[in-house]
TrEMBL record:
Subcellular location: Cytoplasm
Subunit structure: Homotetramer.
This protein's name: N-acetylneuraminate lyase
Pathways per UniProt: Amino-sugar metabolism; N-acetylneuraminate degradation
Stored Gene3D superfamilies: Aldolase class I
Pfam families in alphabetical order: DHDPS (PF00701)
Keywords: Carbohydrate metabolism, Cytoplasm, Lyase, Schiff base
Amino acid sequence: MKQLGLATEREETWLRQENKEINFSVIGQYVDYLINEQGVKNVFVNGTTGEGMSLSIQERKQLAEEWVAKGKDKLDHVIVHVGALSLPESKELARHAAGIGVDGIAVIAPSFFKSVNKDGLVAFLGEVASQAPGIPFYYYHIPRLTGIKICVEELLDGMMEQIPSFKGVKFSDTDLLDFGRCAKKNDKGQFSLLYGVDEQLLCALAMGATGAVGSTYNYFGKTNHLVLEAFAGADLNSAQKYQFCVQEFLSFVIAQGFGVPQIKVVMSLVSGIPMGPPRLPLSSASEEFVLKVKAKLESLKNCPNSLL
Ligand SMILES: CC(=O)N[C@@H]([C@@H](O)[C@H](O)[C@H](O)CO)[C@@H](O)CC(=O)C(=O)O
């Protein structure tokens, strides 16, 4: 947490920032921070934390371009979320992503019509994927936000059969029964299962996760790498210790109300790079949250398992 002092200074900047425009200029700095401070070399752009669904198509394209440009020769993978409510917009984003050379695209279930069925959803995903034929395709499952609760295990057969570029699932849900059934289908390691509920990463690894995508890796990247390493080395005690450390922080912030605005506060405090306010309809985190989370982060500096 050596950046805390710097973040305090910049915090006023982000709280005062009123125009809510994207600050593209910090992306290069953020790439270096992720690599050097967090050991993270893969990014997922325009997802939930990045408020992708609150951005215009043009903004999403510009962001994807900037991440690809600034990540060139530095990052291993830039996966861009291209999901949208409208199929033509999602296809346009997929074509654009393919054109700028991303390493993967992901699509969330379009969620205005909740009565979507499995075949309709797979057909939607397939049409989007077909616009970027050589690019690995991921289905982004986050039912808590989309309200689309079709089990991923049910979708898998359709996606594997109908989407030639299907590469895997970003699974942001606590349903480890569904997750385990997906892992069973992955017995030959045909696809990636990227878990996205960071407080339960270790459980998902035990079940068959092949990787993870989440907001926490912005600021607890190193600690989470230790979870991965300890698990890979069959050192369950250490893996638990590191996971408990992440859980201690997340249970504290979740009790305060932890959504994208609050995640941005933590990311700004730890990185020292201002993430700015969220876009409406989300509102900035309260000053009370900022003070509490600062104190919590300070206290974690003394946690023997924390690499903050
Ligand atoms: C709802 C939400 O934001 N979920 C996060 C988690 O990383 C979540 O913040 C974390 O598990 C803490 O609860 C991710 O699954 C989302 C994510 O990866 C994204 O930004 O697309």
